[in-house]
């Protein structure tokens, strides 16, 4: 059997996180400690453990919404040198999020009055610049995603803030998966979805794995976690020591 010599797309070494409770005399609350984790191309690592174990915190540290208190979090872009997000400049993080790391949270945050079609197309439209043909191609791809995720065409030109929770969740999935990226973070992406749309998201995750993306996800639905996982990690194992 040939060994995979490709470097991991994501590597965490000795990562720790604690929160300081300033309204309680600066008490420090350890959340995670000594997190060592690697995720390679074509893997979907599902984070297990009960609520409050730090699963979402771990995803947010990888995305650099939270800063780690110790350790390194290294992400390998499709081209160029690896980036340690714990040390990266704001500009480097913006570029990393644009081209390398996708994040599907449970909540949709968009500019009011922008249509659902343009919200979904935006990641591709950013790369299109002023190229009219590329912009139209971005919008056509967005139409395909909206159709696949069962967003009625009558809603495409309305702002998603007016949509139901499940519809907003599907817009969020389309927006953050439309541009293929090496690393995809998923925080309960099917939480508000019915069975048919859940099956569609399972298929989309499988396609991302098949193209060689690295995925890390949290799934409240045991059926979804079992369907997409290539490996499972119990986050409770990282609760013993916090630096």
Please provide a written account of the structure.
The chain is α/β, with parallel strands linked by helices and 243 residues long. The chain contains seven helices and nine strands, in the order βββαββαβαααβαβαβ. Strands 6-7-8-3-9 form a five-stranded parallel beta sheet, sandwiched between helices. Strands 2-1-4-5 form a four-stranded antiparallel beta sheet, with helices on one face. The chain is globular, with a radius of gyration of 18 Å.
Mean of all residue-level pLDDT scores: 91
Which structural category do the helix and sheet elements fall into?
alpha/beta
Helix content: 25-40%
How large is the share of residues in beta strands?
Answer: 15-25%
Q: Order of strands in the sheet with the most strands?
A: 6-7-8-3-9
**Amino- and carboxy-terminal Cα gap:** 39 Å
SSE pattern, N- to C-terminal: EEEHEEHEHHHEHEHE
Number of strands: 9
Q: If helices are DSSP runs of H or I spanning 4 or more residues, what is the number of helices? A: 7
Low-confidence stretches: none
**Structural shape:** globular
Radius of gyration: 18 Å
- Quaternary form: single chain
Largest sheet: 5 strands, parallel
Task: Outline the secondary-structure elements.
Blueprint: E1 10-21, E2 27-39, E3 43-48, H1 55-62, E4 70-75, E5 83-84, H2 90-99, E6 101-104, H3 116-128, H4 132-148, H5 165-177, E7 183-187, H6 195-210, E8 214-218, H7 222-228, E9 231-234
Parallel strand pairs: 3-8, 3-9, 6-7, 7-8
Antiparallel strand pairs: 1-2, 1-4, 4-5
Helix pairs in contact: 3-4, 3-5
Characteristic key phrases:
243 residues; alpha/beta; five-stranded parallel β-sheet; four-stranded antiparallel β-sheet; globular
